[in-house]
Amino acid sequence: MLIRNATLPDGRTGIDVLVERGCFAAIGHNLLAAESTPLIDAQGQLLSPPFVDAHFHLDATLSYGLPRVNRSGTLLEGIALWSELKAVLTQEALVERALQYCDWAVAKGLLSIRSHVDVCDDRLLAVQALLHVKQRVKPYLDLQLVAFPQDGLLRSPTALANLKRALDLGVEVVGGIPHFERTMADGAESVRILCELAAERGLMVDMHCDESDDPLSRHIESLAFQAQRLGLHGRVTGSHLTSMHSMENYYVSKLIPLMCEARVNAVANPLINITLQGRHDNYPKRRGMTRVPELMAAGINVGFGHDCVMDPWYALGCGDMLEVAHMGLHVAQMTSQEQMRACFDAVTSNNARILGLKGYGIEVGHPADCVLLQASDAIEAIRLRAPRLLVMRRGEIIARTPAATATLALPDRPSSVDWTFKR
Ligand SMILES: [Zn+2]
User: Fold this and answer.
1) CA separation (Å) from 391 to 190, 235, 255?
2) How far does the centroid of ligand 1 lie from the alpha carbon of residue 306, in Å?
3) pLDDT tens-digit map of 288-332
4) What spacing in Å lies between the alpha carbon of 150 and ligand 1's midpoint?
5) Would you call 211 a catalytic residue per the annotation?
6) Nearest to 295 by CA among 356, 359, 247
7) Which is catalytic among the residues 211, 221, 323, 380?
8) By C-alpha distance, which of 307, 331, 393, 162 is closest to 339?
């Protein structure tokens, strides 16, 4: 297959991409191909590597309203609601909802997801369900699972044993939630135990960390310290980190260099934290997203996650990582050209680094995984939450969406509308 005349996210235009045996075989201008080679005319539109979600909860997704909705809109009511739901979950329902979400993801060009899976259930029902889903979707979607002690590693009596059992079963990343432990000291202790466990087993770490408006929630400091002490450089991720929004600037000026030294990745979840945080504030209300531009400027790898779609914490969403980038851009006020492009990277290449994906990106020799968007560049893709004209996995087209157009019937100039803008 030959894709003609594509624009790549780095700004190269008029690029042809040859796909052979499921891989990118050649990339350049005016490529030659045998007459029998099927052609796709990209018409100058953006050909991107697939979207990657670095933070999701596939065990809770599409459960909105079960058994009731979150009235206060807070993280804590969401956790309580999830506990009510957990008691009545069945494996069949979990699998069905997760598979449905994976279909939505594929249609939106989202082909790799890191999902946390709650291990605070002695039956490990969700773990078994998502390990099954992981195998089922493997031909078209990479699912990476994080053993997540939702009720607190030390707070929940069987959490540590369950978490180890989940890792034994094949869950591949160590999770945590230090700000939900009963004391700051317990939070720090949970970080130590979990990082040591990851170091022993050679695994990555991704913790829900400081998802709070409390400026004194400083578990990211412990996480970065342990990452450095144990030599886990580049393998540790702090998710949410919303308390950084409320911290003193002086303290942050000391914290960010420690995160840099430990090469800790950061994940912001803009759709979720703009709605969950600041709920105890009067006016002015804090935004409650972590300091994305400052972390990026310091050289820290920052990704954006979707976190939730129609679950106890969030009523909306559809697996569209461009919607995530769009919200992240607004909340962080990342409006320069360079910053808007950085928001696109935050839902593609930055997340691929966080997951440790091999062979990611449109390069010769890599698996032919890509998305053709109805947009002329990355910024326009965010502006339009552009349709995914086609989604390719290992050289096969696995989803198509028709281009968004409208036909106008104006008295003086009947015409059709195309929302892309050719300069
Ligand atoms: Zn989460």
Assistant:
1) 41, 29, 40
2) 9
3) 899 999 999 999 999 999 999 999 999 999 999 999 999 999 999
4) 9
5) yes
6) 247
7) 211
8) 331
